[in-house]
Design brief:
Largest sheet of chain B: none
CATH architecture of chain A: Orthogonal Bundle
Helix content of chain A: over 70%
CATH class of chain B: Mainly Alpha
Structural class of chain A: mainly alpha
Oligomer: heterodimer
Helix content of chain B: over 70%
Number of strands of chain B: 0
Shape of chain A: flat
Structural class of chain B: mainly alpha
Radius of gyration of chain B: 22 Å
CATH superfamily of chain B: MetI-like
CATH topology of chain A: MetI-like fold
Number of helices of chain A: 12
CATH class of chain A: Mainly Alpha
CATH superfamily of chain A: MetI-like
Radius of gyration of chain A: 24 Å
CATH topology of chain B: MetI-like fold
Strand content of chain A: under 5%
Order of helices and strands of chain A: HHHHHHHHHHHH
Distance between the termini of chain B: 54 Å
Shape of chain B: flat
């Protein structure tokens, strides 16, 4: 195997690699042994602590309702944030300065502050200014925080998606006499939406992960919060953490795989312009503005 | 709050008066903890992330496998789960007290740094790996054809190019990390988000408090982003 870093290994390199493998394996085994021993010492390996997960009660009373709240919050946040993000993303590219600058300021502001702050603020705001019931308030607060933050990230995704399209698309639209609005709605947006799909699915992973914040700090009964109640009931701290982590990993792994499958399909597809926004672009857009127009990377890749 | 209201000096004092009720931590003290969390976690995750990246691109299959598995597992777990686990799992069950078994404030801080490092390192690793991947294989092949040794290929040809293309993505990781330090509030570390939670629940000035804390984070993240963005553009390898 050749890479930028090293050539195909010869006999000496092969021997060295083998020694490194053995040393590394020994280190890993040592770590695992320590984990196993400590868990055994603290009685975390006892079957009684793991047994609840083989029975339906732990799932139907704690984990599944928690998971369904996680999914509900994530889905609501995505559905509300998408149109908002599209509006702000398009407004940011407007020809009128009085539209472009305020839209840009709003997007940059909400991307620069932590989503937890938005949730805390929304929670308190709802408590004082609305009559949303105490049971519903955590869901509203979590969704509001997620919407504000993710709409601004999605706005950047939309902008990057439109900027990633070849300029010939706009030029051709102008040449056949379409107006600005028509160019956007019938030429650019439909193509950009396809290009953005993988990025949107990847953003869903970020949203799912952020719902856990509401579970700890706003007492929103999502998956992580339900883990607390479950562990209080069965006294199985480590097993419950492992099960919940595995659920998150499986859920997000499915979403990530779906995103990269979409990305690969779109890149191969003959009908598209070749502009695709993938998971890497999403990683970059979740931080505040660095390195100029977000479209730059996407254009380079197309 | 009308304009005439705040222009009176005494009135302004009344509006901001509540801030002086908080001295452990104070507003600035809480943001200082946020900065400390960011700096320590940034250093730690840079070290651990570099090691992970080295594993992921190494010729040893077992290390490559470990690096890939680590990144894919950690990136898919919410940071909140990891941070809460450091407290309820690592400290309470595994007895990892980070050299401060009695000082719970210090212990919480160090556990939060540990959790942030474990999480952020996965993203640092991916940024570094994609940086290495931007260097065309031809560069290394040409260097080898000239007779440069492995260390020379790495230090003179590959790494200088990789490093430049990595600044932008690493800056993004740093900014995301700054925002992620708020998750430490989940285990009671007295940083900005926890103070905001306390203030906003007890004081009447909801909007003002929200604005103060939002401003604090804009001040922390914006200059970093602008500076590192400028740097990465300046140093970019033109291909």
């Amino acid at each position: 195997m050749t890479s930028v870093l090293y050539d195909a290994p010869g006999p000496r390199a092969k021997r060295r690699n083998l020694i490194l493998s053995v040393v590394f394996f020994a280190l890993l085994a040592l770590l695992l042994w320590w984990v196993w021993q400590t868990m055994d010492d603290k009685g975390q390996l006892k079957w009684a602590l793991w047994k609840p997960f083989t029975e339906s009660e732990a799932w139907t009373t704690y984990l599944l309702p928690g998971l369904s709240n996680t999914l509900k919050a994530a889905a609501l946040a995505m559905v509300i944030a998408l149109p908002l993000g599209a509006i702000f993303g398009i407004a940011r590219m407007s020809d009128h300065r009085w539209v472009r600058i305020p839209a840009g300021a709003v997007v940059e502001f909400f991307r620069a502050i932590p989503v937890l702050l938005l949730m805390l603020f929304a929670n308190e705001f709802y408590a004082r200014s609305t009559d949303i019931s105490t049971e519903d308030r955590p869901l509203y607060a979590v969704v509001t925080g997620l919407v504000l933050y993710n709409a601004s990230v999605l706005a950047e995704i939309v902008r990057a998606g439109i900027l990633a399209l070849p300029s010939g698309q706009t030029e051709a639209a102008k040449a056949i006499g379409l107006r600005k609005g028509q160019t956007m709605t019938s030429i650019l947006l439909p193509q950009a939406v396809t290009a953005m799909l993988p990025a949107i699915v990847s953003q869903l992973v970020v949203i799912v992960k952020d719902t856990a914040l509401g579970g700890v700090l706003l007492n929103f009964t999502e998956l992580l919060n339900s883990r607390g109640t479950l562990a209080a009931n069965y006294a199985n701290v480590i097993p419950s953490f492992i099960v919940v982590a595995v659920i998150y990993i499986i859920l997000n792994f499915i979403l990530t795989s779906f995103a990269s499958w979409l990305e690969g399909r779109l890149r191969r597809s003959k009908r598209s312009t070749g502009a695709v926004l993938g998971a890497e672009d999403v990683d970059d857009l979740n931080a505040a503005e660095v390195g100029g127009a977000p479209g730059a990377g996407a254009v380079g890749k197309a | 709050m009308s304009a005439t209201y705040v222009t009176h000096p005494e009135a302004r004092e009344i509006v901001f008066d509540f801030l002086s009720d908080y001295d452990d931590p104070s507003l600035l003290g809480a943001f200082w903890v946020t900065v400390q969390l960011t700096v320590f976690s940034a250093i730690g995750s840079l070290v651990w992330g570099t090691l992970l990246a080295a594993m992921r691109v190494s010729p040893v299959p077992l290390m490559r496998g470990f690096g890939t598995a680590y990144v894919n597992i950690v990136r898919n777990i919410p940071l909140t789960v990891i941070i809460v686990f450091t407290s309820l799992g690592l400290a309470d069950i595994f007895g990892v007290t980070m050299g401060a078994p009695d000082d719970f404030e210090l212990q919480g801080f160090r556990l939060a740094v540990l959790g942030l490092v474990a999480y952020t390192a996965a993203f640092v690793c991916e940024a570094l790996r994609s940086g290495i991947n931007t260097v065309p294989v031809g560069q290394a092949e040409a260097a080898r054809a000239l007779g440069l040794s492995f260390t020379q290929v790495l230090s003179l040809v590959v790494l200088p190019q990789a490093f430049r293309s990595v600044i932008g993505p690493l800056a993004n990781v740093l900014i995301a990390l700054t925002k992620n330090t708020t998750v430490a509030a989940a285990i009671g570390v007295g940083e900005a988000a926890l103070l905001m939670k306390e203030m906003i629940e007890n004081e009447a000035q909801t909007v003002l408090i929200g604005a103060i804390f939002a401003f604090g984070f804009v001040v922390l993240t914006l200059p970093t982003g602008l500076f590192l963005g400028w740097l990465s553009k300046r140093l970019a390898v033109k291909r």
